[in-house]
Amino acid sequence: MSQSSSTPLEPQKRLTNLDVIRGVALLGILLMNIQAFSLHFAAYSNPLALGPINDTDYLIYYFNHIFADQKFMTLFATLFGVGVVLMTDKLDSKGAATRKIHFKRMIILMFIGLLHAYFLWFGDILFTYAIAGFIVYSMRRKSVKFLIITGVTLLSLTSLTLYGIALALPHILIEDPQAITDMTTYWAPSQAQIADDIAANQMGWVAAIEHRVAMAAYMQSNILFYLPRVIALMCIGMALYKLNLFGNALSNKRLARYCMVSLSIGITLSIVGIMQNNASGWPLEAMLSGQLYNYWGSIFSAFAYLCALIMFCRSTMLIKLKQLLANIGKMALTNYLTQSLICCFVFSGWGLGLYGTMTRSELVVVVIAVWVCQIGFSALWMSNFKFGPVEWLWRCLTYSQWQSIK
User: Which of 7-21, 268-282, 306-320, 323-337 has the lowest mean pLDDT?
Assistant: First the structure.
């Protein structure tokens, strides 16, 4: 007997390694996002955007760029693709209305993303994930070869687009000076613009609505620049799942070899890119072609992290740590939104108002504090409930039924 489309799937034994990897990715993302929560957005990619910095802060930027920038987001998007295959396969096996349920989930996720972006923090990624989720649904049954070719093609097209815009900069300067002004403002704002940004973020929640809406709209207006990458990574995640990478397809010896080779390539590319940008003084071109080394380096590094984490999950060591990380991963949506809530409280005017007042080294302390809070909260919550609070709400809305949370 087929299962109604309005009936949720019963909880099944989870792939713990996926939860652990997702948990690590979620925590790692904060290493980069903390800069957008606390500093002018230009500082996220340009270490000199706010003026000269001390050696310690530059080393922190250097470390984050090499080991975190785009790496954990890559992991997270890849696992989202895995999740699409896992859930739709389970729905298919139950005879449920898979397409209807999946699309409803994505619509709800899109709505959550819009609320997140316009009411809390402009740097939302959920809206983009939801759109990508609509698109990759039709690819879930495709072959591994098709998924990998599609992923690599989309990654390459985005890379070529960035490089093409960089080549066109001299012509844009002649034809559209305002466009160059806008790009320069984004990459290297003036002191007056930095002061205005700090003032806007230190306002109360209501007073900052105009600024927050403008920033969220700006981010979403540029979605075509990063949506192809997200779709590509989801496709690659589907392919890796079909190859049973998260199972026993590869021995630890082979995983270790892949990890070392991929990490060497990834780190080398990221270092070459940052050294070139530093040598040239972080010009406007560094925002485009200067990011390409890390664009590709992050994919190799993320794959290395993935291999290392799979080996870690297979081991019998640090069982308690794995459980704590798995708790984070099981309620990743809740924790992602909670990161925004905590950080906005710390830095926004409706909270502690510390925006623009902390150095990169001080922000490391904030990141660690948030990690501790989320690890503790997740462990406490998952010891009493089956789902995270937002995951539970998402589930209720998807199936239009009140769900048991215990």
Answer: 7-21
Percentage of the residues of the chain whose pLDDT score is greater than 70:
94
Q: Which two tokens stand for residue 23?
A: 């948990």
Question: Is residue 132 within 8 Å of 108, Cβ to Cβ?
Answer: no
Q: For residues 268 and 105, what is the distance between their CA atoms, to the nearest angstrom?
A: 39
> Model's pTM, two decimal places?
0.91
What are the tokens at 72? 């954990």
Question: Residue with structure tokens 């899109």?
Answer: 110
The one-letter amino acid code at 281 reads G
Give 245-302 pLDDT, tens digit per residue: 998 889 999 999 999 999 999 999 999 999 999 898 888 788 878 889 999 999 999 9
Rg, Å, the chain Cα set: 21
Question: CB–CB of 328/28 below 8 Å?
Answer: no
Distance CA 326, CA 14 (A): 10
Could you give the CA distance from residue 12 to residue 380 in angstroms, rounded to a whole number?
21
Q: CA-CA distance, 14 to 32, in Å (whole number)?
A: 29
- 109, 133 in Cβ contact below 8 A? yes
Q: Give the H or E element holding residue 108.
A: helix 98-119
Q: Nearest Cα to 131, choosing from 216, 23, 8, 224?
A: 224
Residues 154 and 233: their CA atoms lie apart, in Å, by 9
Nearest Cα neighbor of 337 from 377, 379, 306, 396 is 377
Give per-residue pLDDT as tens, 72-89: 999 999 999 999 999 999
Question: 283 Cβ partners below 8 Å, 6+ apart?
Answer: 290
Let me know: does 348 contact 356? Beta carbons within 8 Å. no
User: 39 phi and psi, to 5 degrees?
Assistant: -130, 165
Residue with tokens 């002649």: 174
Contacts 24+ apart (CB under 8 A), 309-313: 309/17, 309/20, 309/21, 309/24, 310/17, 310/21, 310/245, 310/246, 310/250, 310/255, 311/252, 311/255, 311/256, 311/259, 312/20, 313/16, 313/17, 313/20, 313/21
